[in-house]
Amino acid sequence: MSRHTQGSLAIVGAIAGAVFLVAFVAMYVLSDYSISAAVFLALLPAAAAAVVLYRGFADGAQAARPAAPVAAPAPKPAPVAAEAEAAPAPVAAAAEGKPAGLDGPREGGADDLKKIKGVGPKLEKLLNSMGYWHFDQIAAWGESDVAWVDENLEGFKGRVSRDNWVSQASTLASGGETEFSKRA
User: Fold this and answer.
1) pLDDT(72) > 50
2) Residue 13: which pLDDT band, with cuts at 50, 70 and 90?
3) Could you please report the per-residue DSSP string of 55-109?
4) pLDDT tens per residue across span 24-36
5) Which helix (H) or strand (E) holds 17?
6) Angle, nearest 10°, between helix axes 3-25 and 35-64?
7) How far apart are CA 25 and CA 23, in angstroms?
8) 3-state class (DSSP) for residue 151
9) What integer pLDDT is reported at residue 12 of this predicted model?
10) How far apart are CA 45 and CA 51, in angstroms?
11) Fewer CB within 10 Å: C terminus or N terminus of the chain?
12) Structural contact between residues 53 and 11, judged by C-beta atoms closer than 8 angstroms
């Protein structure tokens, strides 16, 4: 059983136990049911809560699994001279292993990086400050790039690998959707 599943089961069990306790007290103390009737009736909402919560965690685990490999996006044609001047220049790697970033988003504007599971508003701002504005930038990261970003995301170390950003970004860069981006 994976660590994720064990943690999910512990949370589900704790919440279902709390639901049982509240329901039991309500049935036994407030409604004057016998102990056995109160236990039986309290088990019903606790079981229902456990099923609903476990399904929610299971759906989350399904979404966290990497999708089937997606073909790499087709290379974009070389920009016309006017477009080449308008595109932000890549930022030189400040440290060894740092993936190249941009000074700012391209002319069409930044991608909504929050469509990647694990990226919220704060993390999106942090990525932008590091020079990462677009899905195709993240999709192009290799193992050493992922390792560098994982290590240098202040307060979010390991998030790139844990949530499999490169695979998600590849799907989103090619115009596809992930389970998470459909809900976001």
Assistant:
1) yes
2) confident
3) HHHHHHHHHHSPPSP-PPPPPPPPPPHHHHHHSPPEEPPSSTTPPPEESS--TT-
4) 998 888 888 899 9
5) helix 3-25
6) 150
7) 6
8) helix
9) 83
10) 10
11) N
12) yes
